[in-house]
Amino acid sequence: MALLNSKPPLEVWAGVECTVNRVGNRYFDQLERNGHGTRLDDLDLFAQLGIHAIRYPILWERIAPDGLENANWSWADTRLERLQELGIRPIVGLVHHGSGPRHTSLIDPAFPEKLADFARAVADRYPWVTHYTPINEPLTTARFSGLYGHWYPHGHDDRTFVRALLGQIRAIALSMAAIREVNPQAQLVQTEDLAKVFSTPLLAYQATFENERRWLSFDLLCGRVSPTHPMWQYLQKCGIKEAELAEFSDNPCLPDIIGVNHYLTSDRFLDERTERYPIWTYGGNGKHQYADVEAVRVRAEGIAGHRCLLQEVWERYQLPIAVTEVHLHCTREEQLRWLYEVWQTAQELRQQVDIRAVTAWSLLGSYDWNTLLTCCVGDYESGVFDLRSPHPRPTAIAKFVRDLATGQTPSHPLLTTPGWWHRQERLLYPAYQTEQDSNEVSISSAPHPSRLAIIGATGTLGKAFARICAARGIAYHLLTRQDVNITDPASVDAMLAQLQPWAVVNAAGYVRVDDAEREPNVCMQVNAEGSAILAAACARSNVPLVTFSSDLVFDGAVSNPYTESDRVAPLNVYGRSKALAEQQVLQAHPSALVVRTSAFFGPWDDYNFVTLALRQLRQGQMFVAAEDVVISPTYVPDLVNTSLDLLIDGESGLWHLANRGAIAWAELAWLVAKKAGLNVDFIIARPLQELGFTALRPSYSVLGSDRGQLLPPLGSAIARYFDEIEQLDK
């Protein structure tokens, strides 16, 4: 079918992760976790993106948990009215990975009629709403609730899965019928995660079954499930009568728009050679045992990708399509690469496929999807906005979405590098060439991508930046003092002219706190004068800069964590050099990013406090540490990754970055020693004044932030430190 060239531009939609799922008797509500439930002004932030439509929750469990007669519409009234005023078209969702209020469930025979009653009430109250998703991803929800047992009603069998699926599909059809009694023009935007399954030849039968099963929600709605359908016998084996299936085929409820959701880890690979994989990947079907792993981690061709998926959907249904969720839990540049790749694919396919929109998901990020919402551990994935600041902070994705929505071509030097899913390091297991051909276009690196200049090749921080940039696919130049002398303006200008970096990281500096008391001029020249020279040069060339300061700019006269707005009062030469550097850098380059941090520890150098303590204790030596100096230790990988994200986001000014937690040096030594199984009796805690330091140090220099607590808690950092050390030792 040829499409008219006069079709309207590809729209940009957005969505709020709004799952309300039930585990046992407990409900997990994303709108409570992300705070959107109490922040009306979020909608104004969303409008600034220029989006055309928003997938928006008017959820049954939240509006009418105790029945329609007790429904509270105030929240929905206010939000939908504001969306109307802002000119954003809501695509109203009624159930999002949920199972309904407590008086029903996915396998309740009356679930469809109950949801339809709620849908009718929504339509009556908001007759102007034109687009609905009564139930998000019904097949995925049925799998998680009826087959895998993750969510209520915690089924672990095919019969519960099928009953949950058919109940949802019937609920969608009845809901749309009820809505269309009020608004005959109302459109169904039906979403589903259409992941593909690949396998070895032995397990081809299982892959074929799962690849047919993935279409069931759309096939049922479209009235395609007849005795010749590949899933017919399976459904009958699960106890579904022919008359019930005939109800779907006789009364189709075709989606007006098919919403395709697809995640990088959705595609799976099945392999009976379980010895190649971790034990936690093992599964089976009663006939064969096999590992079930992410296809991107093993399949030589990579993921099936949106190109293949969108073509399959179009060929199967010939109905309009929207990509209704585009999200990646990863670093910022990878999030941008993923969104841009999907957008470009959709634009290219519009010559043959009726694709209406691409949806940025999720506007406010999401919580605890790493555990499939089975527990509340606080793992946060940022999205278009980052909620770890006092107010939702727009990330680089926000500008990216705004560019797409307003017809601008997004540009960022990091887009020229392929995402990790195209790079060799994606493979965690021996590569396997499947029989299926990949339709994905091969993406290669740009021949000469713009690079990040990292100054400080010999230091802990500079080396860490280089290591992490390599892992993140960020091209870089790692520069020694011979390559560039930041205290020499001509040297800095020459470096910028020659390399033309897209940004500069200043990881160089004078770091010997006690020696600085003996050679203050050298410390000041490197830390303050050099940083100011570099900042001025970057400002003239319009090059973003990130540089680093210290907790030692404070005097320790307080007992609460220092924030960015607190007055500096350094006690020593090193602290004074850093305080002066902050001032001069921001004067010369107001758009620079100045990161205050403290008490480095990490897995890649031999001389940080934690590594030294463990080494001495393992050797049976005593380890002496201050008992009365309280700091906020900072895990170097967290610091580097977050600094890069902020740099990509275009943030500026002072930021405090340290892992959340306040601890004395001696207590830190005790904590890591205990975790390593070492004798803590060898740790000697002493007052600071007995340790013989030359430079004065604050007794308290814990870093908090009034701009955002972006780094994880200290306990998480220490656990990952040991994990990384274990990997390095293998």
Number of strands: 30
Beta fraction of the residues?
Answer: 15-25%
- Tell me the number of structural domains: 2
Largest sheet: 8 strands, parallel, barrel
So what's the CATH class of the largest domain?
Alpha Beta
Secondary-structure class: alpha/beta
Regions with little confidence, pLDDT below 50 for 5+ residues: 436-445
Mean pLDDT: 95
What is the CATH T-level topology of the largest domain? TIM Barrel
What is the share of helical residues? 25-40%
Shape: elongated
Number of helices, where a helix is a run of at least 4 consecutive DSSP H or I residues: 23
CATH architecture of the largest domain: Alpha-Beta Barrel
Radius of gyration (Å): 28 Å
Give the strand line-up of the largest sheet.
1-4-5-6-7-9-13-14
Which oligomeric form is depicted? single chain
Q: N- to C-terminal separation?
A: 56 Å
- The fourth-level CATH homologous superfamily of the largest domain is Glycosidases
